[in-house]
Amino acid sequence: MNVLEEKEILELIEKLIGVADEIRERVESMNNGDRRKKVDGISNQYEIDILADKILHDHISNFPGYIISEERELDKSKIDSNELILVVDPIDGSTNASRKIGYWSFSAALVHRGSVIAGLVVDQVTQRKFVATQKDEVKVLDKDGKSTKLDGTHIERNEVGNRADNFSGSLIYFNSHEGPSIPFRHLRHFGSTALAICDVARGGLDAYIDDENILLKPWDLLAAEYIAIQAGCEVLRRDSNGILAATGVLVSRSKVLLDDFKKLFPHFF
Question: Strand pairing of 115-123 and 105-112?
Answer without folding.
Answer: antiparallel
